[in-house]
Inverse folding.
């Protein structure tokens, strides 16, 4: 990314623009367009709403955690009427509950189902393929809008196969980039909705973007240096192979859970089918403050663990194993946690790290290219 900024109306940029716009399709697993904004993920949330829906539309959302709650708040600000299925932040979106709501909605007043794929606040991954099946079983025409902000590039995701209409994502998680790029992958049905919906918009307008994108260009100044990084991130992910990338994160997640159980601590996610390959949230024993523990780890080992957000503040800490993470990086992180638990006087059993190592040894690690990079 530390390269000269080039003329974004010139042929060199056009090659870059074409390469990243095309490469994103492979990552989202779509034959349709992917729009890239200079924005954070929140901007892409807004783009999904304003391009497809109209003020007063009913939408169905599920309270999976902090980020689903924030997206709901945004939907309300845009004048959408949100039916929010309550949740306890320990499980993903329940396909049966979504189906029941859609079956109830005989007049098809619900215009969109909006789900966060990987709840970064809880370490729970919702089963989007099963949500799609629930929508089909209800024979409901609502659009499916999915936030893959923390899952894209780390967890299995299939925009076309799962019939997703808008997939929202951004650069700073599985794509291993700094913040600053927001994405929306768009189905034909979402594009058709954008032709008639009534939300006001300008900066986020898909039509304005898609016209110049067809030739590799952008309607306004693109984040050129981040696009250089995106090109490299796509190359790295596709070189390793998405299936192998996803298997690596599953392996790292399994080892992390083994460590947590070894310490005698509790994993926040209650549904094994929804364990996140991206991060693991760990409940603190009663009477112990997670933020105090995180401070001890930061002060002693210069390692930042994820904080509990909103109602989970002080109650959990989060271990990230997304993006450019490999076996050795994970083992260092788990060691920092185990040493931190001892240093902070948090009751636990020793040996979680050793158990995690055994878990990794039992799995095939030979296909971990990033491990080879670290070792060379
Ligand atoms: N959705 C999820 C699942 C997230 O994890 C985040 C940020 O961490 C957001 C939305 C908001 O994205 P941003 O902070 O890039 O605006």
């Amino acid at each position: 990314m530390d390269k000269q900024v080039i003329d974004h109306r010139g042929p060199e940029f056009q090659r870059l623009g074409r390469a990243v716009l095309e490469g994103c399709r492979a990552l989202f697993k779509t034959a349709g367009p992917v729009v890239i904004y200079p924005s954070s993920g929140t901007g892409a949330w807004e783009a999904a709403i304003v391009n497809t829906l109209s003020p007063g539309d009913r939408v169905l959302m599920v309270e999976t955690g902090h980020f689903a709650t924030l997206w709901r708040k945004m939907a309300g600000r845009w004048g959408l009427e949100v039916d929010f299925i309550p949740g306890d932040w320990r499980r993903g979106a329940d396909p049966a509950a979504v189906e029941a709501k859609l079956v109830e909605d005989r007049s098809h007043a619900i215009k969109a189902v909006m789900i966060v794929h990987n709840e970064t606040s809880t370490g729970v991954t919702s089963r989007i393929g099963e949500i799609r099946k629930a929508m089909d079983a209800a024979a409901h025409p609502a659009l499916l809008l999915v936030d893959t902000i923390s899952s894209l590039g780390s967890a299995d995701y299939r925009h076309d196969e799962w019939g997703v209409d808008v997939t929202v994502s951004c650069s700073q998680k599985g794509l291993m980039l700094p913040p600053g790029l927001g994405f929306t992958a768009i189905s034909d049905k979402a594009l058709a909705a954008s032709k008639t919906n009534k939300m006001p918009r300008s900066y986020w307008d898909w039509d304005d973007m898609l016209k110049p994108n067809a030739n590799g260009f952008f309607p306004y100044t693109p984040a050129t240096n981040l696009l250089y990084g995106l090109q490299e991130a796509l190359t790295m992910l596709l070189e390793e192979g998405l299936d192998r990338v996803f298997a690596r994160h599953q392996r790292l997640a399994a080892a992390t859970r083994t460590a947590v159980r070894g310490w005698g601590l509790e994993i926040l996610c209650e549904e094994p089918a929804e364990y996140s390959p991206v991060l693991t949230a760990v409940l603190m024993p009663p009477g112990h403050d997670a933020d105090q523990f995180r401070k001890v780890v930061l002060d002693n080992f210069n390692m930042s663990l994820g904080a509990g957000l909103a109602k989970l503040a002080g109650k959990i800490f989060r271990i990230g194993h997304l993006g450019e993470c490999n076996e050795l990086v994970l083992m260092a992180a788990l060691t920092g946690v185990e040493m931190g638990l001892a240093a902070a006087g948090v009751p636990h059993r020793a040996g979680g790290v050793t158990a995690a190592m055994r878990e990794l040894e039992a799995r095939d690690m030979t296909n971990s290219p990033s491990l080879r990079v670290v070792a060379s």
